[in-house]
Amino acid sequence: MNKTAIYIIIIIFLLVTNLATIFTIVSLNRKEKEGVYQRPVIEMPRDNRVGYFHNQLGIGDEQLPAFRDYNRQFNMEAGELTVKMRELRHQMVDEMASEKPDTALLNEIASEFGRLHEEMKKLTMQYYFNLKSISDDQQKERLHFMFRDMLDPAGSIYGRGRGGEGRGMRRTTGRIQRDFQFE
Fold it and tell me: With contact defined as beta carbons under 8 Å apart, do 154 and 169 qualify?
């Protein structure tokens, strides 16, 4: 046998081995996906939260006016806070990138951001309490799980730290929400 024939045999062997490996990996991934139950994923819509909450909570006609008022009030105030927080983030990054960052200014920005974050959390709590006040028992349970999923979609708030899902955790895009079934 000459060298060319040996090289051809080796190349064919490597090609067959690679194809078999790829086929095995693909088939194992398919079996794994079929065997694992994944709860249905419904993403929290960014544009139509009113409709989303209305549908998921099963808001009745008598609850709708109060629900719309609470939602409108929350969205206006939260929107203003979000804009202020975004501006502070930009200001902070610009200052950090400057030739000689002013740490006193950065500390002020951090303090102001913390104050705005606290205000946002209090606003969210008030919104929750307002929605809870017009909800029946079943809606209160749904509301609880919706907020829990919204504020911690990966379920990882309590598991951070050593061995937990801290930095680098892989979150899906959007907010994963439960899909409530109405009876």
Answer: yes
